[in-house]
Amino acid sequence: MTPPYGLQGRAAVVTGATRGIGHAVARELAAAGALVCVTARDAEEVRRTAAELGGVGLAGSVADPEHPRAVADLALREFGRIDVIVNNAATNQPYGPLMDVDPLAWREAFSVNVEAPLRLVQCAWHAWMREHGGAVVNVCTEGATHVGPRIGAYGTSKAALLHLTRQLAGELGPRVRVNSVSPGLIRTEMARFVWEPGEEEVAAALPLGRIGEPEDVARAVVWLASDAAEWITGADLLVDGGTRVRAAGTATGYAIHERLRSRGTATS
């Protein structure tokens, strides 16, 4: 059976690819026929994921200014091309009121969530995409366009990523399409403190009646990266289970915000 979406033989780079959404994206890209280069901080997990997908990988932090260049060089050396970039790696730190945020932690959030995606796109552009074209998908968040308790740094940095997506779409067209996917609450380790325990209560407040799975986001990412979305750029695709339209169907409060208020810490 021919893999869907026309990604056969194309090369993709996925950051934060050893768990959660990034891992699901890398799997879906490989299933669609793409050659996959993965990166994350844990070297053993990178090796395991690369072997699982029949691809290559490089361990490191996207916050390291040299890491995006090294990843792009690896993909180009091993695959001879870079057709797809998926900027998924992110941090939800610092967590808490903005008046208490440490300036260094604030800068780290922007380094990981905004600067690193730009650097990787720059590297891919100069190495391959400027001449041959390609697609970029940034993993943003449903919360990038509104506020919430204790997640001001995360939300602000993701709002910047959303604007960066649109800016790059305007600058890099027609050769390169740049879009984003904005997930709602997804069943990942990064979000575990929100949905566990009491997942049923959170899910009941959503029109589609469940929290999201990494695969829900991955399918959207792969579609945007594929030829099926060839006339789409500068777009943000919501994958949120109806989070933004929940008020039309329920009179209860927003359970996710209540959980954010009640928790003093979060993990990246």
From TrEMBL:
Query: Which molecular function GO terms apply here?
Result: oxidoreductase activity
Q: Which UniProt keywords apply?
A: Oxidoreductase
Q: Name one Pfam family in it.
A: adh_short_C2
| Top-level lineage group | Bacteria
tRNA processing keyword on record: no
| InterPro entries in the record | NAD(P)-bd_dom_sf (IPR036291), SDR_fam (IPR002347)
Instruction: Report the sequence similarity comment from the record.
Output: Belongs to the short-chain dehydrogenases/reductases (SDR) family.
Question: Under what name is this protein listed?
Answer: SDR family oxidoreductase
Which organism encodes this protein? Streptomyces chartreusis
